[in-house]
């Protein structure tokens, strides 16, 4: 059975569980459950703290896991990143009191608060800047106001937590992070390829919709440029010989723009349907 580590709490847990459910796996029903066997799919789920997942997978105790790229790098574990999972996107940045810092080297000799001391320590060592790291568990944006640090290094999504504390980002981007599937060192575990294909299917189903439309045949080339599909759009004859029906996958976020452009071009009966599941 493939042993899969899943975040039990925090910002990754809900979407990770949802993706696995959409991929056809039977996860836990009771949030107090820590280990759940899904015999039908020949996998076993281990619900663990997101920060610990890389440690378990890196040691080989578990085959694969869902965690954040930032947590993986912070752990220093030997687990490897297998696939991006397309959620929990963030950047990892330095921040200080508005207007105080403009360059990384200005941190030399100062105190930097973070929950990711492994990641930040490695980064600053590489950059040749020597600081005192203040390791905090969370809410690090308060550290400057409360006087325990001169700057912070933390996860930034919208930036609103920083702004509310009078902080602003400065210096280079430490990392672009998102949720990732990680694997134990060595040969891929049996069953891993199936898990990967299923998760990729879920990502496609979340990211794309199907668009169908009718079109005068002489406009095919122009319409196909608007909806190239993933491989190539399907074009079927209509009873009226001057027209064709076109079907293609398009990114969900551009649906309305594409519908406007198609209508403008001369397409009619433009229909959009969600994709329930996919294997490409
Ligand atoms: N606001 C956010 N936007 C996107 N990703 C985030 C956000 N906050 C945390 N993450 C990501 O979630 C992961 C951290 O998850 P974890 O559950 O440990 O922290 P948390 O959500 O902050 O929970 P906790 O309440 O324990 O601090 C990291 O990969 C991090 O990049
Ligand atoms: O840029 P923003 O959109 O404001 O999001 C970033 C914030 O979200 C997370 O905090 P979380 O709520 O997990 O609290 P924590 O700091 O205690 O982990 C993260 O640690 C940042 O503080
Ligand atoms: Mg947090």
TrEMBL record:
Its EC number is 2.4.2.17. Belongs to the ATP phosphoribosyltransferase family. Long subfamily. Feedback inhibited by histidine. HAMAP family: HisG_Long. Keywords: Amino-acid biosynthesis, ATP-binding, Cytoplasm, Glycosyltransferase, Histidine biosynthesis, Magnesium, Metal-binding, Nucleotide-binding, Transferase. Residues 205-276 form the Histidine biosynthesis HisG C-terminal domain. Pfam families: HisG (PF01634), HisG_C (PF08029). Catalyzes the condensation of ATP and 5-phosphoribose 1-diphosphate to form N'-(5'-phosphoribosyl)-ATP (PR-ATP). Has a crucial role in the pathway because the rate of histidine biosynthesis seems to be controlled primarily by regulation of HisG enzymatic activity. Its cofactor is Mg(2+). GO terms for biological process: L-histidine biosynthetic process. Residues 49-185 form the ATP phosphoribosyltransferase catalytic domain. Pathway: Amino-acid biosynthesis; L-histidine biosynthesis; L-histidine from 5-phospho-alpha-D-ribose 1-diphosphate: step 1/9. Its main location: cytoplasm. The gene is hisG. It comes from Humibacter ginsenosidimutans. This is ATP phosphoribosyltransferase. One of its GO terms (cellular component) is cytoplasm. It comes from the Bacteria. PROSITE patterns: ATP_P_PHORIBOSYLTR. The keyword tRNA-binding does not apply. It catalyses: 1-(5-phospho-beta-D-ribosyl)-ATP + diphosphate = 5-phospho-alpha-D-ribose 1-diphosphate + ATP.
């Amino acid at each position: 059975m493939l042993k899969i580590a899943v975040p039990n709490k925090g910002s990754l847990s809900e979407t990770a569980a949802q993706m696995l459910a959409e991929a056809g796996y039977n996860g836990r029903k009771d949030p107090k459950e820590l280990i759940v066997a899904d015999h039908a799919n020949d996998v076993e789920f281990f619900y663990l703290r997101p920060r610990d997942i890389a440690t378990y997978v890196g040691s080989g105790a578990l085959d694969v896991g869902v965690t954040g790229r930032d947590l993986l790098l912070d752990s220093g574990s030997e687990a490897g990143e297998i696939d991006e999972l397309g959620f929990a996107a963030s950047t990892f940045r330095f921040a200080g009191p508005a207007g105080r810092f403009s360059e990384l080297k200005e941190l030399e000799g100062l105190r930097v608060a973070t929950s990711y001391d492994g990641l930040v320590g490695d980064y600053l060592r590489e950059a040749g800047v020597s600081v005192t790291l203040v390791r905090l568990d969370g809410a690090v944006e308060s550290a400057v106001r409360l006087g325990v640090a001169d700057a912070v290094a933390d996860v930034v999504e919208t930036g609103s937590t920083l702004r509310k504390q009078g902080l602003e980002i400065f210096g280079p981007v430490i990392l672009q992070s998102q949720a990732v599937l990680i694997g134990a060192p060595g040969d891929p575990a049996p069953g891993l390829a199936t898990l990967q294909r299923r998760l990729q299917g879920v990502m496609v189903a979340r990211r794309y919709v199907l668009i169908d439309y009718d079109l005068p045949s002489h406009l095919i080339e122009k319409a196909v440029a608007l909806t190239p599909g993933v491989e190539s759009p399907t074009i079927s004859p209509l009873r009226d010989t001057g027209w064709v029906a076109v079907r293609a996958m398009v990114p969900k976020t551009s649906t309305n723009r594409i519908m406007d452009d198609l209508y403008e071009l001369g397409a009619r009966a433009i229909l959009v349907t969600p994709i329930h599941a996919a294997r490409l």
